[in-house]
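Just curious. Invent one:
>
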Amino acid sequence: MKAVLIKKYGGPEVLQITATTKPIPRNREILVKVSYATVSTGTVLLRRGKVPDSLLLTILMRLIFGITRPRQEIPGVEFSGIVEEVGADVQSFKKGDEVYGTTTGLKKGAYAEYVCIPEKWKWGVIAHKPKELSLEEAAALPVGAMTALELLTKAGLSAGDHILITGASGNVGNYAVQIARYYGARVTAVCGTANTEWVKATGADEVIDYKKQDISRLSNRFDIVFEASGRIRPSLLKPLLKKKGRFTSVKALTSEKNEKLITIHKMIEAGKLRPVIDRVYRLNQVVEAHHYFAQGKKGNVVIEIGG
């Protein structure tokens, strides 16, 4: 089968397409024929082997994921596809099922024509694709939506809250906009000039163009400030909180749980949540896809593996 391999840390050019052995599902594993994967922040960090502006986090990441080269030679965190085969004792999936999920904590990622996924494991998730979404959209759902849901929940989001969301045109940020609106919050979103109209269309009550307005000088005060861009210092945003306001950041630790996907599926079924796809690249364009991601994108960048 074809797969993307990483032999060393570095820029997009370290991504090399090669032929490798098709995996065989073991007990309680599912062999998925991958249709789509994504270029995610997690995938990019693991490819680069460093966390921007943090030597400590870079050292910790290298200790976990490989000191001089990635332990997971095939990258790719998110995927969607069709079940090709199931191992013994698999209960919830069968051949032909359309599924999506993550490869978090596994030895091999989703940038391959096939990947083996445990039916259940500690770090990641696999679930049946919501019928309302295409396989292309489903690949871009799990990490961003789960991250936004968990951080909003921890921040105590409730109906009537006024929330400021920076990075609202990004993956996590736009899911946060949609989820906050689902729960009845008033949403002020922050993004660049090119993205203001579509961000408003996804549910924001107000959109601020950070290129035209200094958000640190806003007169409004918010119940919650969600820093979803990963680039703004908390010290610039916390003064925008009300007296008992809550601050949360995309840099906070989160986890992947199937229970979160159940909640997310309810939002999708209600027509209140949908992935935003910026561009779709073929597998042989994976280097180009990673370069485009680095330039800044809206929503998600998807890679078609098997279509």
